[in-house]
Specification:
The complex is a heterodimer of chains A (747) and B (330). Chain A is 25% helix and 24% strand. The longest helix of chain A is centred in the last third of the chain and has 25 residues, at 518-542. The two termini of chain A are 33 Å apart. In chain A, 56% of the residues are buried. With 330 residues, chain B is α+β, with helices and mostly antiparallel strands. Chain B has 13 helices and twelve strands. In chain B, strand 6 (176-182) and strand 7 (185-190) form a beta hairpin. The radius of gyration of chain B is 20 Å and the shape is globular. In chain B, 51% of the residues are buried. Classes of the chains: A alpha+beta (747), B alpha+beta (330). The A-B interface holds A 46, 121, 124-125, 128, 280, 435, 618, 620-623, 625, 660-661, 665-667, 669-670, 672, 674-677, 679-680, 682, 684-688, 742-745, 747 and B 1-3, 41, 99, 117, 119-120, 122-123, 125-126, 138, 141-143, 145, 231, 233-241, 243, 308, 310-311, 313-314, 317-318, 320-321, 330.
């Protein structure tokens, strides 16, 4: 462990909310104390398609403590939804699922009723007494059996500029001679985010049509907007609080049916309502990484130059909505290759809609792409890292633009050196350790840069401490810590003097936490807000009498240790507190917005990285143990090493789970998941996780934003599954193209 | 969860009298399985009889055997010096089970009585003959990657689930007696007879009658101390039920095997004892080839379901690996 910590500079901040989290002082969504609170429990469908013919709720209603049983039969009308019609039929594609709207069942596990009672236990018991009868229709949930029905998504048919349009660069004729070619099909099963904290909401209606929700989500502003729209309220009448989040990984980006259900119930009962999803309900309530099948064919000249890539991907979605992912997009940008074709298709099944899950599309697509690259390198008898370097894209081959910055080559070199990649044997099954086969594998990672308009407010207090606010989120990466660091650095104050506030919709506008966009967007806003505040303070300091302080020839204004100095050489400064005192100010506040300019038209912007993995595989039992990981990332400037490193480690752990364990199995006779608890849905435990070494290039990208920093959350997981699968191949000679790589596939 | 009565007896007779007249009563000790089952509505006892205050925690060696009270915690048994010295196979099996937190709560008696972790058993919306006799076996024709490959001879099983315990696999390989007290007094049951194979009464996991309480287990001293191994193959390194597990115990002298025991977990409705192995290994010098032959012999009677054909090869391989480790050959 010592060795790894050496990579963390001493200046790293500890998590600003770490103590609150580990002592239980942090309040999560389900933990707010609200007077008069009542408890809701969902009843979910046990068929995958059909309609509800009857709901017998008398017994439940008579049970102790029960206040109401809500279903489509008696739910309030949501003002923002179209009026209920008797024979409206199934919702057209593109309609978000409307809870308790009509008797139609679109997927197994769909909420069909909700019991509200005085205690959670009373509601749980009563929910078990609600009898729902259905008219069952035949359902289709089996991906392979229905893949022939997959097609071009309607969203793509409607939009010529959609990035998911079929793509072709070059032609078969221009690609040159292909000496070696591989073709393979890769499958990832449905995987669920399953954060440890289940989704939960407390909905509180107050007089004057005011709604407050304490809701686990990844974007308070987006939830505020969606609830305001659904209930036809002015935005400011809706407040969304989500200060602490026990993991989300993408499951909290949308407003899901359970959130609507709780808000509807609170309105109907005129009582605050709490709803916490059960673990099994988490499998059908908050999206998932869709089942996806990909075909890749890839060719190269015998000296290892890529000649062509054809990448086709088909993902799963629901019958009522299209969820599109970047599955095939990495193949356009990662390598210099004269001929690239990508095609993306969707298959609608009787399931709930998937959603973004860490590295959405890219984690899926890069598993296939980087497995295929490894397969082709092996077919060429070439080291897979050498093969990648041979086809290194010096500029973006898709958009024909220079990269804003790209240090992937440095990542490869640093990672290879730290991992001692040169010891890798080309031939599989060459190395054994205590009777286990040892293998090395690696893969690249990339993720597009996202920066959204974002605001931040910075307030200098009378005592010289600083409050910085933005309606951003922290689903775990340590947003508050990173923002505190940015503010402290700009203002020249000790981080202890800074308090960063997030997770409340009344704060200045910020995007939700997704797409690795928080540091690039909100970090920039905090930076410019603090710069503006600093400049105001410098201007105010200049107006003050010099006193004993020497008058600099050139008064440029420099801040350090909470004081303003005339110039860097000045020995005596004036403290922020004194500046405010002199000017009779209780506080000094600025709010600034930061957003992208036209730089995106001039540069192609990505984060890059790579992972090196060592595995041991038991030749007798097929068990795989990851024994060593080196991960290296190029995300521009690193804001706070310690929390960044933790985020990289989390990504690798997620990637190991994706590679070796995670699989939501469904019994297609019922269209119902059968792995709906942590005994059956496996994620890594501590014993599965080896030492993970994390390295950063840490070179600011001067074109992306004022802080030179790009996103890290997604690239931490993208590529990990391929690196593991490639290591398994190197160990065993078996190429597993269907995740997860469980012992049954290797024995 | 249905409301229930909670009782806390001080003595074994008191506990038994509380349970005797009520078929819906349940004893609770660590609760690591029962509480889950109650939360899910799979069992809804009218009465919970908390036996944690009964004097059944003692671990002691008497004459030729180790006697372990039914309320001894899995973690306490696993670190008990006498158990470590005399029954290392049992210790290995205990430590392969569950997680540290669960072992600190789970008792030996409760471990014997754990219910299967079959997904169909746990989901009230799906058929399960064990949970609801006559409703059908969901795993038959369903998702059965983790299900059984050994079944009762000449009888169609009504349940394809496997027994989840690790401890019981080791106890099945060793000579173990389960001490049971009930309304009719005390009786002693051989471990091999304690659990039932799934036939027409899959709702029954064991031979326990109404009100009967496991009070202790007795593990006989043996000569396997130096040559035993518990191998558990699972989907992750820890905290997962076995795909297949093997408890292998050998008595060796002069480079030859003189006695052998082997039991398998994760392959049948009860821990599966490989009865013929003693005869097949006795007098032989250990070798991978010998172990392979012996393993494949037992697999001839195995039968794969739709999703678990891999278990036939895996079980055979796991037996070879466990026997090799037990014998100390590479």
């Amino acid at each position: 462990m010592k060795k790894q910590l050496d990579n963390v500079p001493d200046t790293s901040l500890n998590r600003v909310d770490g103590a609150a989290k580990v002592t239980g002082a942090a309040t999560y969504s389900a933990e707010y104390k609200v007077p008069g609170l009542v408890h809701a429990v969902l009843v979910t469908s046990t068929i995958a398609k059909g309609s509800i013919t009857a709901i017998e709720s008398q017994e439940a209603e008579a049970a102790p403590g029960v206040l109401a049983v809500i279903s489509h039969l008696n739910a309030i009308t949501v003002p923002g939804w179209p009026e209920r019609k008797q024979s409206a039929g199934r919702a057209p594609v593109g309609t978000a699922f409307r809870v308790f709207y009509d008797p139609l069942v679109y997927f197994d596990g769909q909420p069909v009723a909700m019991v509200i009672a005085g205690t959670h236990e009373q509601a749980m018991h009563a929910a078990s007494l609600v009898r729902v009868t259905y008219k069952r229709e035949s359902h289709q949930t089996h991906f392979e059996k229905n893949i022939h029905k997959a097609g071009v998504p309607l969203n793509v048919q409607r939009s010529k500029s959609s990035p998911f349009q079929d793509y072709e660069r070059g032609t078969a004729a221009t690609q040159g001679n292909t000496d070696v070619k591989i073709e393979a099909e890769y499958t990832i099963p449905t995987q669920h985010h399953q954060p440890l904290e289940p989704h939960a909401i407390i909905a509180v209606w107050e007089a004057g049509d005011k709604l407050t929700v304490y809701d686990k989500n990844q974007g308070v502003k987006s939830v505020q907007g969606q609830l305001a729209q659904a209930f036809k309220l002015p935005r400011e009448n809706v407040q969304v609080v989500s200060k602490y989040i026990g993991g989300a990984f993408g499951s909290g980006i949308r407003v899901w049916p359970h959130t609507m259900a709780a808000v509807m119930a609170a309105s109907q009962l005129k009582r605050p309502v709490k709803l916490v999803l059960g673990r099994e309900q988490m499998f059908t309530s908050v999206g998932y990484r869709p089942y996806t099948v990909q075909k890749i064919s890839m060719g190269a000249t015998k000296d290892g130059r890529l000649t062509g890539i054809v990448h086709e991907g088909t993902g799963q979605t629901s019958m009522y909505e299209e969820h599109l992912e970047r599955t095939v997009l990495a193949s356009r940008a990662l390598y210099a290759c004269p001929h690239v074709t990508t095609r993306y298709r969707l298959l609608s099944l009787d399931v709930n809609t998937p959603t973004w899950m860490r590295g959405p599309g890219d984690a899926t697509g890069v598993f296939a792409l980087e497995s295929a690259v490894d397969e082709l390198a092996f077919a060429l008898k070439m080291d897979p890292l050498e093969f990648r370097l041979k086809n290194y894209a010096e500029s973006d081959p898709e958009r024909n633009l220079p990269w804003s910055a790209k240090s992937l080559r440095e990542c490869y070199e640093l990672g290879a050196e730290k991992f001692r990649w040169q010891n890798r044997m080309l031939e599989p099954r060459s190395v054994t350790q205590n009777g286990w086969l040892m293998g090395y594998g690696m893969a690249s990672s990339l993720y597009g840069f996202h920066r959204h308009p974002s605001k931040a407010r910075a307030v200098m207090q009378a005592d010289g401490s600083v409050i910085v606010q933005s309606a951003t989120m922290d689903i775990g990466p340590g947003t508050g810590t990173a923002m505190t660091r940015i503010a402290a650095k700009v203002l020249g104050v000790n981080a202890k003097k800074v308090r960063f506030e997030l997770g409340h919709s009344s704060l200045p506008d910020a995007p939700g936490q997704n797409g690795s966009s928080t540091i690039p967007s909100v970090g920039s806003a905090v930076h410019v807000a603090c710069e503006a505040l600093k400049n105001k303070l410098i201007a105010l300091a200049r107006e003050m009498p010099r006193g004993s302080r020497p008058t600099s020839q050139e008064w440029s204004g420099v801040v350090r240790n909470g004081e303003v100095f005339g110039s860097a050489d000045d020995k005596e400064g004036v403290s922020y507190a004194d500046i405010l005192k002199y000017h009779h100010l209780n506080e000094l506040e600025v709010t600034e917005e930061s957003k992208a300019g036209a730089e995106g038209n001039q540069y192609s912007m990505y984060s890059f990285g790579c992972h090196f993995v060592e595995v041991l595989v038991s030749p007798l039992t097929g068990e795989v143990r990851v024994t060593r990981v080196v991960t290296c990332a190029d995300v521009g400037a690193i804001i706070n090493y310690k929390t960044a490193r933790s985020q990289s480690i989390g990504g690798v752990v997620g990637g190991i789970g994706m590679a070796l364990m995670e699989h939501s199995a469904m019994d297609h006779r019922f269209g119902r998941y059968v792995t709906t608890d942590f005994a059956n849905y496996h994620i890594p435990v501590h014993a599965d996780i080896p030492p993970i070494e994390v390295y950063y290039i840490d070179k600011p990208d001067e074109h992306v934003n004022p802080i030179g920093s790009k996103g890290l959350g997604e690239i931490a997981i993208v590529g990990v599954a391929a690196a593991v699968a490639n290591a398994v191949f190197n160990a065993t000679g078996k190429r597993i193209r269907e995740l997860p790589i469980t012992p049954d596939k290797l024995v | 969860m249905r409301p229930f009565q909670y009782l806390r007896p001080k003595t074994v007779p008191e506990a038994i009298s509380m349970a005797a007249d009520d078929p819906e009563a349940r004893y609770i000790a660590g609760g690591t399985n029962l509480v889950d089952l109650m939360k899910r509505g799979i069992v809804s006892p009218t009465k919970l009889i908390d036996i944690n205050h009964l004097p059944l925690k003692k671990i002691e060696h008497r004459y030729d055997r180790l006697r372990i009270g039914a309320l001894a915690l899995n973690s306490d048994v696993a670190r008990h010096k006498g158990v470590m010295a005399r029954q290392p196979l049992l210790v290995q099996a205990l430590l392969a089970g569950a997680s540290g937190q669960l072992r600190n709560m789970a008792t030996v008696g409760g471990n014997l009585l754990q219910r299967t972790r079959c997904s169909y058993f746990y989901d009230l919306a799906l058929p399960c003959n064990k949970r609801k006799p006559g409703s059908g076996c969901g795993a038959e024709g369903g998702v059965n990657r983790t299900h059984a490959i050994f079944f009762p001879v000449d009888e169609k099983p009504a349940c394809l689930a496997v027994h989840p315990s690790d401890m019981c696999v080791a106890l099945t390989a060793l000579d173990t007696v389960v001490v049971v007290t009930g309304p009719g007094g005390e009786r002693r049951v051989q471990m091999r007879d304690f659990h039932l194979l799934s036939t027409q009464r899959p709702e029954l996991d064991t031979i326990l009658g109404p009100g009967e309480l496991v009070t202790a287990i007795e593990v006989l001293d043996n000569a396997f101390v130096r040559h035993s191994h518990y191998l558990k193959v699972r989907d992750r390194a820890s905290y997962a039920f076995a795909l297949v597990s093997v408890a292998a115990a050998l008595q060796m002298d002069g480079g030859r095997i003189w006695d052998a025991r082997l039991a398998l977990g994760g392959v049948a409705h009860k821990p599966w004892r490989y009865w013929a192995i003693d005869l097949m290994l006795r007098g032989q010098a250990p070798s991978e080839k010998l172990f392979r032959d012996v393993a494949e012999h037992e697999m001839k009677s195995a039968k794969a379901l739709e999703d678990n054909a891999y278990k036939i090869r895996l079980t055979s391989n796991a037996m070879v690996a466990a026997l090799k480790t037990a014998a100390g050959i590479s």
